[in-house]
Design goal:
about 425 residues; alpha/beta; three-stranded parallel beta sheet; globular
Length: about 425
Amino acid sequence: MIPEETKLKTHKFMNRNRLLAISGLLLSAHWLVASEVKSDAALQRTAQRIHARSILVDGHNDITLYMADAGYDLGEPSAGLFHTDLPRLKQGGVGALFFSVWIDPAKYATNGGTARALKLMDAVYSTVDAHSDKLVLATTVADIRRAKRQGRVAALIGIEGGYAIEDSLETLRAFHRLGVRYLTLTHTRSTSWAGATTNGLGTGLTAFGREVVNEMNRLGMLVDVSHVSDATMHDVLDVARVPVIASHSSARAILDAPRNIPDTLLRRIAANGGVVMVNFYNGFLDADFAAAYARVESEYDALWQRHANDLRAGRAAEQQWAASLPPVALARLADHIDHIVRVTGVDHVGLGSDFDGVERTPVGLEDVACFPNLTVELLRRGYSEKDIKKILGENFLRVLGEAERFARKSQPSNRNR
């Protein structure tokens, strides 16, 4: 029989060991939490350093509409209403921004597209003039790199919707002279020469459409295949002699939406040397969000009908309405990047946010100030600084540079045009 005194000593010893074990677990848990916080802070610092050494190119931003039609000044603080203003562009480390010149096919599919494009472009020129200490108009890779050295954002122009050229190669050439450096061949409605995802799924390029692509190559204007049908994309890749871009498109294998690009075409874009600039819109990233949006889409349309004459009020109502839709994690956007990298390689991925053209973006990517949060996520996933720099902008700069070189080579044989 074990004496009571021995039992008591043993019990005390066991309790002390339990206490020590529990204390150890608590200390370990505290260390893990502290380590995680420290790790997050370290990743944020690393992301900021990478951005300071990189040129971040956003391939598609729709703030131009509000600049032209709502009198919005980029110098005006706009958190909570718009995604984009100058202080937040600096905070997000944005080096170059494509101001989208969106030609609404509901209004300009058959006429008026050229004049509409000029109005929106004028808003970009005026904004650059008003804020020349922070913005500079850019048309070349050299311009973009110079802007980075000067601490200014390079402002570039891309036209969204081939309706703008009104079936005229002369107008296309004039837009290039005015600084346009890409043309999205369609928006949500087919042109007379290129099929769109919405109403032209089986329609590709006509003979004139192939002329448009050839002329854009000759000029050094990038062909943008976002919004076009799969058939049009295949036809463009058959014709194109220089790399193409998808200025704001994601991966169909992750979310089966017509606006996203299937693997077969991702591979063809990679073989062409092009770049897919991933869209931040929740509706192109996540199936749950897309399904929820589809159920209430009529409400969204009605909202904008009520505010058709007051874009600021409409934008505020849109933001309030969209808050009820399910959130999407930033990681979901990174999933699309991961997939495209696996299919194409890291040299063919970029960023095309669609900021100020969409209602909801992932948590942590609420506006242009938040780009470093995406870099943090890529660091967590093991991307190197070299590869992150490519995704942020170097891949796009390579493509634009190739277009410039091809255009220079093409000019002597076209002197008399």
